[in-house]
Amino acid sequence: SCPPGCLAVVQISMPAQVEVLLGSPVTIPCTHSIIGSPDTRLVEWFITDRDGERRRVAYSEGGRQGVDQGTEYSGRVSMDPNLSLVLPKADLSDERAFSCQVTAGAAGSADGVAQLRVYEPPEPPELTLNPGILSVMERSVSEVRRPR
Question: Name one Pfam family in it (predicted).
Answer without folding.
Answer: V-set
